[in-house]
């Protein structure tokens, strides 16, 4: 686990740098997800909004009481086909039980 402040710092950095990210919902059997960019991240109210491309935004995720964790490709727990493409993973566990992973591509 990492602190909420560190989690928000990572999200804010990705927003500022317009980093393309892979968004995955691990509870779904297939490890497929859209490539997204963060268009808004806020601590008050706590939330994040993703751009799915083409002007489509994913409904804002409420990050109030969210838990954050991070992993590199060796700690991520994904198959090699995934960890070869992505080097950093941010795990988000929302208060309502939904679980997401954001992954940053290896350069």
Give the % helix. 10-25%
Report the structural category: alpha+beta
Radius of gyration: 13 Å
Shape: globular
Q: Which stretches are poorly predicted, pLDDT < 50 over at least 5 residues?
A: none
**How many DSSP helices?**
2
Terminal CA distance reads 25 Å
How much is the average pLDDT? 86
Compute the number of strand runs: 7
Biggest sheet architecture: 7 strands, antiparallel
SSE run: HEEEEEHEE
Which strand order spans the largest sheet, edge to edge or round the barrel? Answer: 4-3-2-1-7-6-5
Main attributes?
about 110 residues, globular, 2 helices, 7-stranded antiparallel sheet, alpha+beta
Structure notes:
With 107 residues, this protein is α+β, with helices and mostly antiparallel strands. It is 17% helix and 46% strand. It contains 2 helices and 7 strands. The chain has helices at 4-17, 80-83, and strands at residues 21-24, 35-43, 46-53, 56-62, 67-72, 86-93, 99-105. Strands 4-3-2-1-7-6-5 form a 7-stranded antiparallel β-sheet. Strand 3 (46-53) and strand 4 (56-62) form a beta hairpin. The radius of gyration is 13 Å and the shape is globular.
